Amino acid sequence: MASIPAYRSGASLLNQMAATAVPVGAVAVWHLGQESVVLKGGGMTIYIDPYLSDSVNEVTNGQSPRKFASPLQPHEVTNADAVFITHDHLDHLDPWTLKDLAAASPQAAFVCPVHCIPMLTDIGIARERIHGVNAGQTHRVGALQFTPVAAKHEEFTVDADGNHAFLGYVFRLNGVTVYHAGDTIGFRELAEELEKQDIDIAMLPINGRDFARFAKGLVGNMDFREAVELGRHIGADLLVPLHYDLFEKNTENPAYFVDYIQRYYPQQKFKMLVPGERMLYLSERDE
């Protein structure tokens, strides 16, 4: 494992989360690497796709593929009110992370695609803590309102009951609307759905896809160009790239993302978060 330190980690990071006061109309954001994000606002702290372990190493019994250690260990996460899973790939639904996180945060609810419910119960998370959801349904957990959005991880995967295996989420929290795309390519129906949502922050994967990676079983996402164009189409105020930093064989140079914005949309706001960094975002939509 590369010894790249997180900006903030462990007790220091958790103390910062606890001490961060979030005014109405704002949300605090922490990036934990890959697509792992923490949002805080309205008295709630939510984790999205927490991948905090070295589970790939556990599975392969080989050297860790991570480029940096997780800013938090699963057993340290005592502050989760809700945990959202976008799909069942290991770097998004990680049993090693979720099992210890669930024990450390007994108050946390878990939200996931319907077909992921057995995966969570199999690791000992009580069924009453798990909320299986599908695209298009709007729900509320405490102060948080959220709507799952269908994603194409290159293609749609839908079961016989019409439940999507890959989801993104539109979160409405404390007066701010955040879209976390999960893993997806850009496509017309997604753009049409999101442009109705008045997105403040769009968190989008940029690692792309290609034949060579697909042949090795690495299903792809939108690239930096698609991510910027989707964010622009839906009118997002702030673009945040994800899914480019953790695994050496499935990364992207985020400078391409920055260069594309500077070339074509120089007034578009964006933020590249390093692992363990905090951002406080105040919505400007009603000002």
UniProtKB/TrEMBL annotation:
Any single Pfam family the record assigns to this protein: Lactamase_B_2
Reaction it catalyzes: 3',5'-cyclic CMP + H2O = CMP + H(+); 3',5'-cyclic UMP + H2O = UMP + H(+)
Limits of the Metallo-beta-lactamase domain: 46-244
Top-level taxon of the source organism: Bacteria
Function field: Counteracts the endogenous Pycsar antiviral defense system. Phosphodiesterase that enables metal-dependent hydrolysis of host cyclic nucleotide Pycsar defense signals such as cCMP and cUMP.
Assigned keywords, A-Z: Hydrolase
Protein's recorded name: MBL fold metallo-hydrolase
InterPro entries on file: Metallo-B-lactamas, RibonucZ/Hydroxyglut_hydro, UPF0173_UPF0282_UlaG_hydrolase
Signal sequence segment: none
